[in-house]
Specification:
The complex is a heterodimer. Chain A contains 17 helices and 7 strands. Chain A is α+β, with helices and mostly antiparallel strands. Chain A has 2 domains: about 375 residues, Heme oxygenase-like (Heme Oxygenase, Chain A), CATH 1.20.910; about 90 residues, Jelly Rolls. In chain A, strands 1-7-2-5 form a 4-stranded antiparallel sheet. A 3-stranded antiparallel sheet of chain A has the order 4-3-6, with no helix packed on it. In chain A, helix 3 packs across helix 5 and helix 3 packs across helix 13. By secondary structure, chain B is mainly beta. Chain B has a single domain, classed as Rieske Iron-sulfur Protein. Chain B contains 1 helix and 10 strands. In chain B, strand 3 and strand 4 form a beta hairpin. Classes of the chains: A alpha+beta, B mainly beta. Chains A and B meet through helix 11 and helix 15 of A and loops of B. Bound molecules: FE2/S2 (inorganic) cluster and fe (ii) ion (2 copies). The site of FE2/S2 (inorganic) cluster has 10 residues of chain B, from loops.
Amino acid sequence: MTIQEQSLPVFASDGEVLRDRVASFAANQLFGGRPDLLHGPNPYRRTLVPEALAEVDFDRPLGAREFASSRALTVHRILGTYYESETVLLPEQGLAGLRPDFEAFYGEELRRIRESSLSDLERFAFGFLDGEVEVSGDCTPEVLDTYLRHLVDEAARGDSPALDAIATAADRPAAADTYLVQLALDGLTEASAMSRNLGGAYGPEQSALFKVFIDEFGYGVHESKHTTIFTKMLGSRGMASHVHAYWNFYLPGPIAINNHYYLLSRDHAKFFRYAGAVAYAEAVFAPAFVKMIKVFRDVFGDDVDLHYCDEHAHIDEHHGRITREEILLALAERHGNHVVPELMRGIAEARMLGGWFEDDTAAQITWSDTIPRHRELAADATLDGPPERAERTRGAAFHTRNHDHAVVLEIEDGEAELVTSATGTPTPLAKGDAVLVPAGRVYGVRALSDASSHLLHPVRTSA
Amino acid sequence: MSRIVVMDLREHNTVLAGHDRYFVLVGPDGDSHLVRDWCPHRGGPLSLSRLTPDGRRLTCPWHGTKVGVAAVRRTGLPMVRSGDEAIVLLPDTPDDVPVTLVHKRILANLPPEDPDRPGSDGPDGSAGPAGPAGTVEDCAELPALPCEEQR
Ligand code: FES
Ligand SMILES: [Fe+2]
Ligand SMILES: [Fe+2]
């Protein structure tokens, strides 16, 4: 028996309508950006790069293999902002001075735009999952259990490209920080998506999820809440820990995985997929954090607070068991075999997006760690077609972006710096200097002189 | 500084003292202990735990840690029961700490769970009769890390 969500047309509305709505959202003054690399302690302001929207073809939804595309970065930033607008964000230092931003962020104008475009934006960003993940055959609870156990074993045995990239980097501390930055998107608001599955009435499985949730929330003791111990880990590295200091440095893969949990948690038609995804995630977290502890101890010795990792290495053993036995398998028993394909689909999706997190983070760490090498590669690259030109002025809003294909970034005029990580040292570039930017890699350029301009040369890919 | 609390066991089975909670755990012979409602793993509500089939341990509802009944009893507060009246000595409890007596549902006093029917739930277990007698195994001291985790 094969049960799949019906294939719906990609959009109820057309791409132009979606673009207009999303563009009017991103054009709000909250999202225009600041000159600083990091965002200040104001959860309502985050750079959405409205100009980048002009390049997005909204008639053609994101594909399964373009998780690190420029469109994916632009769109997932906006989608993530939509989702977080449905959570309560208040600045630790108090709202004084930020009241107008609070009102704009949660206000009617932006809310109406979100309400009129969220479903289409979700379909644009995640519609490919309908075709990409398919479950067929006679799926029983036994099949489900065997499938999950197999994937959990695979994850425990397999390596982590991102952690491996840290271990082999020349600048291991900066590489490790990049990894922490990618965890921060979820870590600073942990279990927010999960909280959306707590309401309603669905029996013992609901209570089982609540048990997981109370652990995530530290039993109501703020010091024990997972977000609190996450901020302590960042603090021990001298990193900022407010929502979302590192917004400009979140990669599209990690943003997508976070958005995926919101996608499955917002629309309860996808509840069984959520149950599959959370069972997979909770089961693979414990061994993943054991690996992370090893790598981070190697890099930092005792100079990092890894209580967050210790906590997950321990408690996610329980969460893996609770979500598998008391949620996943219990739902299959109670509701019958016809829900099993959706549970399995959720598992498969979580695994696929987990792979994106790893690959995207590993690629960014490796590129950021080898900029001198990429300056040599720029000299050897075969340029292909006319360049795009960009200008920067000192003190202008800073933003980051990426490209679908490799480009050579060449300083045409003035002096600038290339920023490829949140905590590493930017690379100063003078007129004539060039760097190869591989497809998908996220970077920003900041003028060091009063003004600078740079060219983005397409590179012939056979090179 | 100890505080004296008088309980009518027909009406109350739980003492709230500041942030701590204690409940009356009734043993197989009807013997009562006022024990801390706090699992040594993460502070889960042991009053909502169930006895293992052998009657020796309580399975915490949060993460399934099995805590030896003997160890739980050792967390008991000094208590003198005469009929339905119990006089409890709350250690180190200043006068300004609020103390409240309540009646709660205590699953730990129900007979052991039927191993064939996991999750089977009985009626109100507050005055629960004793389960089958059994030697009470000795477990790690409370509060400590879990004596034995489920699997
Ligand atoms: S709190 Fe009791 S098992 Fe975790
Ligand atoms: Fe957590
Ligand atoms: Fe967890």
